[in-house]
Design brief:
Strand content: under 5%
Largest sheet: none
Number of helices: 3
Distance between the termini: 51 Å
Shape: elongated
Helix content: 55-70%
Length: 107
């Protein structure tokens, strides 16, 4: 059932999913990588177990955000690459060594 869709549908779907991944990844990066301190963090060097758990959570969300942004950017690049490959197949590139150049022009 799903394989019956045309190739353009899958390429567009890849683009939309890539855009969603990039957006979600950048939101994660915005909320978890930009703050200088974790909310409720100690003022100096007193590290409590709760603070360390929050620190791990922030680092995990930051890594996920970066990974989603990278995967989304790659997925957004699929449609232009597919279009370039398809158009290169459809057009004929003429070269100076082509035998058709020596043939007389049609009347």
């Amino acid at each position: 059932m799903l394989l019956g869709f045309p190739r353009a549908f899958w390429i567009s779907l890849c683009n939309v999913v890539g855009l969603a991944f990039s957006l979600f990844g950048l939101l994660l990066l915005f909320f978890y990588a930009l703050p200088n301190e974790i909310p409720g963090s100690p003022g100096f060097i007193a590290f409590s177990p709760g603070w360390q758990e929050k620190q791990r959570h922030y680092e995990t969300c930051t890594h996920w955000g970066f990974a989603l942004a990278v995967v989304g950017t790659i997925m957004e690049g699929v449609p232009p690459v597919c279009m370039t490959i398809g158009s290169a197949r459809r057009r004929r590139i003429s070269t100076p060594n082509n035998d058709d150049l020596d043939a007389p022009a049609p009347p």
